[in-house]
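Task: sequence design from structure.
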């Protein structure tokens, strides 16, 4: 495992982090038992992973609870934990600044911790990213002063939101939507690096499409039913094009993760891991040194053929 800078006063974090959405019970994914969740966390530690990303609404709080249980005997100084605010453990949305403190206290209790390394606002409407018009960031600064968190920021999807957040707040963490098919946030990477803002890349495999396991005939029964038949056909064609850029023996998922990690501004990538086999395969992505030539081809592919499609998430 390789490690990169994250936030000030933090240890370096593993290039592959564990996104803990799938740890929760009945989280919209194939549910794990508590024992399976704990085993996955322990295997992550064995593989060198020290960064864990969770949220109150993942499994209605059970993701945080299970993560806390799994990490209970781990040296706290050797792990970094990010959680969120806004999507509550009861399943409703509450982005009110008055709720930040109680949300954090609930997360701390479930995680069995006395502080969180980073707390981010969980994909709110864009107006919340303006520090000149919201008092959220004053409250988050107070939580830093109290030692409850080390840094704060937001989870977001576009360059415009990245820029607004960095221009108007002292946020030092962003969880950004970035992958081969969605490169808009790449425009904010240099600014983030200059401001020493850690970047967590979410959805690096485009909800499974960049694993290569889906095609135009794929059927979906979970959250992925959001895709129309046209969406499915479009993504299937894009996957086939990406494959032409790679050697026949290349692992598409590993290349897709390596593409995200190729950017210096990226601190860590959090692919979905529903079992230990997937986790182990994703970790192997750190062994891949993707060529600059391939990076440029994939960037051009996005700009010339994907950007104007406005692919829905």
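Answer:
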């Amino acid at each position: 495992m390789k490690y990169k800078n994250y936030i000030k006063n933090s240890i370096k974090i593993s290039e592959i982090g564990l996104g803990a959405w799938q740890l929760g019970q009945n989280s919209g994914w194939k549910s794990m038992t508590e024992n399976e969740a704990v085993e996955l966390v322990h295997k992550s530690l064995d593989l060198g992973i020290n960064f864990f990303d969770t949220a109150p609404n993942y499994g209605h709080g059970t993701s945080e609870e299970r993560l806390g249980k799994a990490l209970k005997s781990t040296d706290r100084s050797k792990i970094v934990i990010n959680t969120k605010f806004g999507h509550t453990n009861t399943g409703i949305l509450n982005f009110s600044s008055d709720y930040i403190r109680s949300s954090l206290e609930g997360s701390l209790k479930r995680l069995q911790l006395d502080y969180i390394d980073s707390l981010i606002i969980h994909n709110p409407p864009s107006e919340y990213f303006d520090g000149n018009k919201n008092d959220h960031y004053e409250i988050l600064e107070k939580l830093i002063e109290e030692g409850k968190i080390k840094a704060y920021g937001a989870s977001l999807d576009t360059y415009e939101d990245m820029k607004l957040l960095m221009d108007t707040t002292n946020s030092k963490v962003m969880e950004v939507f970035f992958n081969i098919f969605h490169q808009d946030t790449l425009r904010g990477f240099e600014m983030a690096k200059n401001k020493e803002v850690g970047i967590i890349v979410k959805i690096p495999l485009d909800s499974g499409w960049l694993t290569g396991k889906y095609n135009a005939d794929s059927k979906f029964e979970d959250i992925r039913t959001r895709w129309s038949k046209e969406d499915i056909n479009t993504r299937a064609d894009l996957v086939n094009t990406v494959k032409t850029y790679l050697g026949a023996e290349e692992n598409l998922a590993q290349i897709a993760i390596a593409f995200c990690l190729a950017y210096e501004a990226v601190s860590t990538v959090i692919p979905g891991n529903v079992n230990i086999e997937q986790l182990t395969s994703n970790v192997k992505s750190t062994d891949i040194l993707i060529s600059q030539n391939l990076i440029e081809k994939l960037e051009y592919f996005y700009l010339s053929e994907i950007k104007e499609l406005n692919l829905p998430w």
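The chain is about 35% helix and 15% strand.
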